[in-house]
Amino acid sequence: MKHLLSRLALAVGLAAPVLLAHAEDQVARGEYLARAADCVACHTAPGGAPYAGGLPIVSPFGTIYGTNITPSKKHGIGLYSDDEFFAALTEGKRRDGANLYPAMPYTSYHLMPRADSDAIHAYLKTFEPIERPAPVTSLSFPFNVRMGLTGWNMLYGKDLKLAPTEGKSEAFKRGQYMVDVLGHCGECHTPRGLPGAMQLDKRMTGGVLNGYLAPSLLATDLAARGWNHQDLSSFLKHGMSAQGTMFNEMFPVFHNSTQRLSDPDLAAMATFLLGDQPPAAKVVADVPFEQLGASAKRGRQDYLNVCAGCHAVEGEGKPHIAVAMRGNTTLRLEDPRNLLRVIEDGIGEQQFVGFERMQPMPGFADKLSHEQLTDLLNYLRQGWGGQSAEMAVSDVQKLRADAPSAEHKAH
Length: 411
What we know:
By secondary structure, the protein is mostly helical. It contains 17 helices and eight strands. 43% of the residues lie in helices and 5% in strands. The protein is globular, with a radius of gyration of 24 Å. Heme c 1 binds at residues 39, 42-43.
């Protein structure tokens, strides 16, 4: 008996370090996966504790608040088992059986393997419990009836399927998981229909989010905007490239997620988006002033008045101050709303990898008339964006009226 007990004690003693190492590996892996899934972005309020919830998420159906997912047993997920956490992540089911709103991207996460879910759960358990409830989501009828999501989930909850990868490279396959599942990129870059579900027949063709366009991520469209594999993977890593910088909703994605991913995974994401045999990146030549339309020619003076001080007279930009207009991917979008929104709303100061930064850009919503803004947009898009069509003042008026929160004076 003594020998048996001694052997058992020895076995337990030898197993303990192995189990501890496994747990540590699982937590480290969970941290990486949580970064790739960008969980912190929606579950952290501005200035709040990580994962304590409270971020307001504006939707067409009302404002939804990110929940507390710290280990708090009262306000967070401290009582969730691995099974219950997996159900929340992949089926949109709370521990009490209630449906989560699909602002939680379980419509993409449902393709996540159980081991990855368990690793993320293990990582979240390492945080200090935040004993504070997130604001309660209170939508108007009928969207406040969570039971109604049962039918929605039956129709759309697991609608997303991964495209076949036969004959594709291992990098392509890894990139598909990083983009389509963990990164859930399609949740923003795919248009949504009336019931709020992704229109999967138009997957990755772009979607409008809070007045800004999450542009198409189709390979042909990326190439048309000047993206090649090296620039795209570098853009995900550094948040900036010759094509511009990440801004609006993508800047937190860079800050919290993509800059922290491994180089092989970033390269895999670029491979998946552009393909194993990517199309050639389009080069757009500057258009001489005399070849511009009448509105664009007038816009040159508006550019010199309000833009050239930072972006330089010939649009070459200034390091650590403002991006170049030449080759800028936003100017090359057929839809002008992002360019218009940036000019109107401005961009806050941006810190990138290392000492890279861009100074804040002021908004000009109250400084430019409809006519001036139209002329400026035409100058930028025709001169450096490869756009031949000329926008009318009525086009700009409509886009300004569609702004989600801006109130414009009559000009």
